[in-house]
């Protein structure tokens, strides 16, 4: 599958209710460390274009999107994806698949809803090996849409994301993000996470303090 002359849109959505800090062991080069490093790099790029907006980003979501594209990449593109993932050859699949199963396992006390999909232009063929690899490694669905009707295509993608996250992520894409003439593939990752804080805020230690917003406005906030 060649991407050189095509428009490829990668979308990663994250709904976060609560996060617990697990701590990091700096001496161990784990998947989590690789993913966090990649996530921080992408985060820095995103916030540089949105200096006044709140930004939340899932490193695992970013890694999943790149992992989904990897089976269809060749040459320099493949080298760059592997470099970003900090792996050699096909290393990411085993770790990404393992983490995905761990996150959605019933034994996990946190609530995690995760969904991956490839939405391709109707009539745009993709190799079966590419689709099979993504289904096996990322539980990734594949659907055909008509991007020449961007409003309808965006609505269908958003409905799919909403259904997979039980309404927690009702909208992910806008119609103006789709180029009717060029868009051939939209790669989507959506994650909803609800968990308990490892160290909760104590009510008796919470006080109203001045808070400066991105537009230099002052408010009182706990």
From TrEMBL:
Record keyword Aminoacyl-tRNA synthetase present: no
A GO BP entry: negative regulation of plasminogen activation
Keyword terms: Protease inhibitor, Serine protease inhibitor, Signal
Gene3D superfamilies registered for this protein in UniProt: Antithrombin, subunit I, domain 2 (3.30.497.10)
GO cellular component, one term: extracellular space
Pfam families (alphabetical): Serpin
Position of the signal peptide: 1-20
Gene Ontology molecular function terms on file: serine-type endopeptidase inhibitor activity
Alphabetical list of InterPro entries matching this protein: Serpin_dom, Serpin_fam, Serpin_sf, Serpin_sf_1
Domain Serpin residues, every copy: 40-222
Keyword Hydrolase carried by entry: no
Family assignment from sequence similarity: Belongs to the serpin family.
Name assigned to this protein: Serpin domain-containing protein
């Amino acid at each position: 599958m060649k991407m050189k002359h095509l428009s490829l849109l990668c979308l990663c959505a994250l709904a976060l209710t609560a996060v617990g800090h697990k701590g990091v062991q700096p001496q161990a080069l784990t998947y989590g460390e690789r993913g966090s490093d990649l996530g921080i790099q992408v985060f820095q790029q995103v916030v540089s274009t949105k200096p006044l907006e709140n930004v939340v980003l899932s490193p695992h979501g970013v890694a999943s999107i790149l992992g989904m594209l990897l089976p269809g990449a060749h040459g320099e593109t493949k080298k760059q994806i592997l470099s970003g993932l900090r792996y050699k050859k096909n290393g990411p699949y085993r770790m990404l698949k393992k983490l995905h199963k761990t996150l959605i396992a019933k034994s996990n006390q946190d609530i995690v809803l995760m969904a991956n999909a490839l939405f391709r232009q109707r009539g745009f063929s993709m190799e079966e090996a590419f689709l099979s690899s993504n289904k096996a490694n990322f539980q990734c669905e594949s659907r055909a849409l008509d991007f020449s009707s961007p409003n309808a295509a965006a609505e269908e993608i958003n409905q799919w994301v909403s259904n997979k996250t039980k309404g927690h992520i009702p909208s992910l894409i806008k119609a103006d993000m789709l180029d009717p003439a060029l868009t051939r593939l939209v790669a989507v990752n959506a994650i909803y996470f609800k968990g308990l804080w490892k160290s909760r805020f104590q009510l008796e230690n919470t006080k109203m303090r001045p808070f400066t917003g991105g537009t230099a406005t002052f408010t009182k906030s706990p």
